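Q: What would this chain look like folded?
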Amino acid sequence: MKKIILSIDGMTCSSCSNGLEKYLNKQSGVENAVVNLVMANATIEYDEKILNQEKIEEFVKQAGFKSLGKFKEIKLEKKSKKEKNKFIVFSILAVVLMYISMGHMINLPTIPFLDPHSNTVNYMVCLFLLTMCFVVYGFDILKNGYKNLIHKTPNMDTLVGIGVISSLLYSIYNMVFVLLGNNDKFMSLYFESAAIVIYFIKLGRYIDGISKDKTKEAIEKLVTITPNTAIIKRDGIEQEVTLDEIHKGDIVISRPGDKIAVDGEIIFGKTHLDESFITGESKPSAKEIGSKVIAGSLNYDGYIEYRAERIGKESTVSEIVRLVVEASNTKAPIAKIADKVSGYFVPVVIVIAILTFLVYLIIGQGIEIAITSFVTVLVVACPCSLGLATPLAIVVSEGLCASNGILVKKSEILENAQKTDTIVFDKTGTLTYGKLKIAEIFNYSNMDNEKLLQIVGSIESKSTHPIGKAFTDYINQNKMQTLKVEEFENIAGYGIIGKIENEEYILGNAKILEKYEINNKYVNDEKELSKNGNSIIYVAENKVIIAIIGVNDIVREGTKEIINILNKNKIQTIMLTGDNKETAEKIAEDIGITKVISNVLPSEKAKTIKDLKKENRYVMMCGDGINDSPALASSDIGVSVKSGTDIAMDSSDVILTKNDLTSIINLIKISKKTIRNIKQNLFWAFFYNVLMIPIAIGLLRPIGISINPMIASLAMVFSSITVILNALRLKKIKF
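A: My prediction, written as structure tokens:
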């Protein structure tokens, strides 16, 4: 299966996006299609043996929309100056039109040659011409409404189009009578209604467009964070180039005040970098030779040279933008409910409008009231706000998470994180920094500690486990030479094996001794090391234990406070680790975790998660993403603690790029506020329709409450504005 994200033109409401989504999902070869109204794109998974981009774009066209090609997530479009000027011109024309058509009703001075009583024809022709200007201005609305009606996917444009054309045709019909000499018919002209409805729809969309741009600000900040040019060194000569001219392996120079151009590794110098746009951490990070740098970071105070490693779409920034965009293109369960309602809403409104029209004719109220009520129902019930209720809140929250070092891969996580009642933490690299150091050694061999650690470090250098780094760091710091290792084997959850100079060495926890039936007579020494909070590594040579090494770690700053907050919020915290019981319980006791599950293999971690879920718990698993993949995949929400440069390799639901666990609390907080916001949006969207449709039908006319198409279109705009402003409140969440 292949995935493509296309930019879509012509979508104006949830009925549009729902209609296109349904149409695409019906096509042979399309595995799954999700259409995003706010981002104006469609994410399509398809069988490349059956379809290609050209065929998919043809499907989009058949559905009544236009594909603008692949979605360029790094080029978010702004409102053009031409569009803004056009809107200003028509705002002025709208005021003029209203003055001419209704000024005399409220005793405003009339323009003599446009007086409706003395110069009826002039008055009528002027209204007609001004209205036709608005018809041209809103032709896209009428065209889209017609196309969607033809394709059996009626949307907001369909409602407006039917209403405007009905009002216009009825007014033209009466205009003919006026031209034939029946001046009394000028009171039955509704040109201004058709024009002002179009104007208010355009006003609503203009505001929507500005608001949608605001929801993308966090993504835009990431997109524009990298510099346009950089200084590279080729053949000893410095030259300024654009980012497109940088190749992998190029040596890039950065001076104080410069921004890092591409992801890479420092090969000369040291400095402090501001990586807050990735990690959310305001404190500058110290960097030296061997440290990774991320494109967009600000160089504070040092001169460095770094080797370009990931450029263009491979960069961390591009990867984050891709994750945020794809996340906003997934649908939370609550959004699917709203979409389903919207799918039925437009046809139901059309039926209600037609019935209203027929009832007024049957009871003898006259064609004018029947048509006015018909148009009013169509206009007031436009489901624009309903379509914006969920996606706007989701996109704002996705951007808020990204700017605070929380990368959420699926929008459903934003809905479900607030359900979490159990959080399971891995120990090494999650609750602790994973920066282990050798603390104590029980050496039972004939070799000295230095030789022992050279052997152990040489074998551990082949491993990716955090414990192995403690030994490789020791070798590097003491400038020791690594020995040649043969027949290396990693045994997940147990340890590693390797041969040096034909001697077989087995390194690992107590379980590896059982696996290879190695006699362990040093249990008391292990307990002594464990009491001090050490992780234990047994070293066996030819299946005889020659040493026990204790390594310890530093608990992440603020972890105790975070666990305390979670406990106060009645969220159970559990430590799940492959480490021994004594070490795990010592650390758990220090930070406030009351339940510890120790000595477990990666596969057993996954089983533990499944067992917790069987108890009807909503489980979040937080690990370092290395040995925790099965558990992360088995949990309801998998969260991994990663450095920025590891983002592309991660497979969890959520990635925390900030170097502390506060982000978990922030994620749950954002989730709670997002769901509350969406429910508020849906309430206001439905409230407007439930309140206004009966008024539009005329059910409250007997008590003197009624509205016309112009007021109806204005009410629709207010409905959208209410939802937009409420969604934008999410940007003000404080942590």
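The mean pLDDT is 82.
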